[in-house]
Amino acid sequence: xxxxxxxxxxxxxxxxxxxxxxxxxxWEIDSEDGKANLKNGKKIAHEIFELEIPEEFVKEAQNxxxxxxxxxxxxxxxxxx
Length: 81
Ligand code: SF4
Prior knowledge:
The protein is of the alpha+beta class and about 80 residues long. It has one domain (about 5-80): Alpha-Beta Plaits (2-Layer Sandwich). Helix content is about 20%, strand content about 35%. It is built from two helices and six strands, in the order E-H-E-E-E-E-H-E. The strands form two sheets. The chain has a four-stranded antiparallel sheet with strand order 4-5-1-6. It is globular. The termini are close together. About 20% of the residues are buried. Iron/sulfur cluster binds near residues 17, 18 and 73.
């Protein structure tokens, strides 16, 4: 079965909140700096986070990427084995 992950570049988040409204399962807004946090995301570099997601949630995750106004801030990618 295909595997997917959300890749989130928090460096360029402008706190537009659209992602949280679209997919609160994955996103919450940080009360300190107003940027989004990827819930349970694993930090892989400075302000870059990843979260593996089951295929059933890919559409929901992609919706949150689509509504984000910052290009490349949220990506949903297939994990290559
Ligand atoms: S929609 Fe994009 S810019 Fe807005 S809070 Fe979410 S990640 Fe940040």
